[in-house]
Amino acid sequence: MEKIIKIRALKIILFALCILLASCKKEAPKEESPAKETEQTVSNGDPLPSWNDVQVKKDIIAYVKEVTTTGGPNFIPAADRIATFDNDGTLWSEQPFYFQLFFALDQVKALAPKHPEWKTKQPFKAVLENNMEELMKQGKPGLLQIVAVSHAGMTTDAFEADVKKWISEAQHPSKKKLYKNLIYQPMLELVKYLQANQFKVFIVSGGGIDFMRAWAEDVYGIPKENIVGSTLKAKYDYNNGAPSITKLPALDFNDDKDGKPVAIEKYIGKKPVFAAGNSDGDLQMLEWAASNKYKNFELYVHHTDSVREWAYDRKSHIGTLDKGLDEGKAKNWSFVDMKNDWKVIFP
Fold first, then answer.
1. What pairing do the DSSP bridges indicate for beta strands 82-85 and 227-237?
2. Cα(323)–Cα(326) distance, rounded to whole angstroms?
3. Distance between alpha carbon 148 and the CA centroid of its chain, in Å?
4. Considering only CA atoms, which of 205, 223, 204 is closest in space to residue 213?
5. Domains of the chain
6. pLDDT digits (tens, 9 = 90+) for 311-330
7. For strand 200-208 and strand 334-337, is the pairing parallel, antiparallel, or unpaired?
8. How crowded is residue 237: how many other Cβ atoms within 10 Å of its Cβ?
9. pTM over 0.85
10. Distances (CA, A) of 273 to 190, 253, 288, 308
11. Among 70, 97, 105, 317, which one is least packed by beta carbons within 10 Å?
């Protein structure tokens, strides 16, 4: 029972930290944007060169050809070719914690030299000591303190600058790669393939919208205005002729689960005809796409590769795929088996 309580507490901490936006910084050499690398690989005639010659690849290519063939029975006008992708676990990795959580903790650590009292004060003591068990015990009050010190009163411009610096330097603790290079090369190719066929590609994620917009355009080639995520409340200040928007430590919108179709309707205004996710948090988005009057395509990324990435689904504390696994198979949606379907995972 105690173990179950701890796992549930961890889920709450991880979920809330990612929603409220949130850092262990390690210097690393600058690397090319993976999006640039993908542009080169697609040019060899195979739109998905990092995919093995498997059924899901054939189905994707057949679908795109079918809905873009003028005069065909399932032709979709370019204006209605909307594709939505989840981010965490769908476009980049998410283990052992959402990467935005690492950013949040790093932010606290970066501010620590100015706050020597944090060495003995919770929840900051737990963060500085990398004591996740103790951090879980702090619950929502501790979480709000972390958010307040790292984001309250911060302008959107200052926050974007912090995220850009972090994403260019920070490395994953076990993979020893920049977080921005723990993205999925096959999914990058899929994004590019859809864009080349006049699909308008969006990210629809439970992660923070400002966090993703700071780097995702450079990494994925998806415009900032096509990124939808969870948001904090904010306020505008004319600021004596230098207008600014300041982030507040309060949740405005949670873009997860049934919040995803709501966000799609609110920010995009059209149902997707192509939707990709990896967890139960994406299920409602895929259901929404499946209700489109146009021929549609639903894709689940199934994490099955414990060697090159991680293997998890029903019982994972991150990216749980349980109900979606059953419903997706029952409805004959497409699944990517990462271990067997992808030649490579990371660029």
1. unpaired
2. 5
3. 23
4. 223
5. 26-98+155-341 (3.40.50.1000)
6. 999 999 899 999 999 999 99
7. unpaired
8. 11
9. yes
10. 14, 24, 9, 31
11. 70
